[in-house]
Amino acid sequence: MKIGIIGGTGDIGKGLALRLSDKHEIILGSREASKACEVAEETISTLGGRSCKSLCRGVSNEEAVRDADIVVISVMFQHVAPTLAGINPKYLENKIVISPVNPMGKKDGYFFFNPPTEGSAALAIKKMLPESAKIVTGFNNIAAHKWTLLDEELDYTVAVCGDDADAKKAVMKLVSEVSKLHAVDAGPLAVAGIVESLTPLVLNIAMNNGMKDVGVHFS
Ligand SMILES: NC(=O)c1ccc[n+]([C@@H]2O[C@H](COP(=O)([O-])OP(=O)(O)OC[C@H]3O[C@@H](n4cnc5c(N)ncnc54)[C@H](OP(=O)(O)O)[C@@H]3O)[C@@H](O)[C@H]2O)c1
């Protein structure tokens, strides 16, 4: 599978590349293709040092979308609209789009959920995509730092919301290929805000209790 990551040079993009590029072709996108190439080379070198192959390359955000079967939107919510506006929408047609995007704010030292009027980032992003694109939430509640600790298992639940059953199934399969991640069907896109709102909760819990990389595990 070809997975294109918009904003692939960021914390989540780097982590996804490290954890997935031994099984899938990871196409890291950036506003500056050279920056994405550097991150791709770092990924290949890190995995090579562990005797693992890595199929990873860096390109522009638009090329990452164009060449992908599945697209991950890995930029902060406020950057999503301007970034998508710079990408030819035909490249997004019929594609599965994963949103790990959590719209959050910080006030008086605490994180809070700060959704757009649509109720969630996922619902707002859906409006920015061609109608045929299939948006699904994924990877919202796992700290980016944890993705890079390759000696540690990712033992978390990933709540997947979406309106297209096949897209949801494909994303749940992809999630389940990573470490000990356990994908669960969390309902339609209409309830994506619940998943997104868990992230400020876990960040506040981590901060208040001196914990690191707090995550969600439903069992
Ligand atoms: N970090 C976490 O622990 C975490 C956990 C779960 C979910 N998430 C979600 O995952 C998404 C990505 O998070 P992240 O921490 O990886 O983000 P990030 O590292 O802050 O940024 C990702 C990339 O966004 C691009 N970017 C920065 N400013 C931009 C701008 N003004 N316009 C367009 N692109 C810009 C940069 O890529 P280029 O400079 O190469 O273009 C950057 O590498 C967010 O929506 C976040 O809510 C994050």
UniProtKB/TrEMBL annotation:
Q: Name one GO molecular function term.
A: coenzyme F420 binding
Enumerate the PANTHER family for this protein. DUDULIN-RELATED, F420-DEPENDENT NADP REDUCTASE
Domain (Pyrroline-5-carboxylate reductase catalytic N-terminal): give its ranges: 2-103
Q: Which residues form the signal peptide?
A: none
Task: Give UniProt keywords alphabetically.
Answer: Oxidoreductase
User: Can you tell which superkingdom this protein's organism belongs to?
Assistant: Archaea
Organism in which the protein naturally occurs: Methanorbis rubei
The transmembrane residues are: none
- Cellular-component GO terms for this entry: plasma membrane
Q: What is this protein called?
A: Pyrroline-5-carboxylate reductase catalytic N-terminal domain-containing protein
Q: List the GO biological process terms.
A: copper ion import; NADPH regeneration
